[in-house]
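>> received
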Amino acid sequence: MAVSLNLTEFSNLPALKLMALDYPALQIIDFKLPSFQVYEHGPGFLDKTTMVKYWLTYAFGHRDYFNTLYNNHHHTDEIRTSECVDFVSVDLLPKDLTKSTPVTTPRKDSAMSYEAIADELTKAITNPMFAPLMATDDSLAKLPQSYIMNAEFDVLRDEGYILAERLRQNGVPVEHKFWGTEEHGFLNFVEIDDIAMKETDDFAEYFLNVVNSV
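>> returned
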């Protein structure tokens, strides 16, 4: 998605016809979305701990800020009152995904002073080239028609839903597929999982329709 956003700024390049995202990771601003709470410890390999570690490694090459992010203690007052929070609002989720959300168990915070790392974290949190859900509505409106796929047993479930809704609100045609019996990574098991095969076939059909309509 970051590549797609970047390409919209180059008028001398051919415009993309399609953006396709499978259970995408799109934001680092809120690790208390319902899916991060419901599936904090799984099932599946992609639990909250793993995802926070992935983001930290991607952003900084280390995991020194793990407890700060895990406990959602990485927001300045400026971020809390900014439009960035609205970009991942739970109000964009279907109501049935926000019911009966459990309370997560906080990890013991380290002695690291947040003030010492606030600027570094803020730059990452709000950068759409790093966390694409931080793109403004004007930027999202420039994106091509999109195909987004999510699975239920996945901490990233809600991010796909939020992106799909934001794209729709900004006039971008969206095909959002959701598989309620699957977990993150299930497409790797297409030879033994009938749902993985169906998703592969469905996307192939969708892709061919896009190609034939150009």
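>> The chain has ten helices and three strands.
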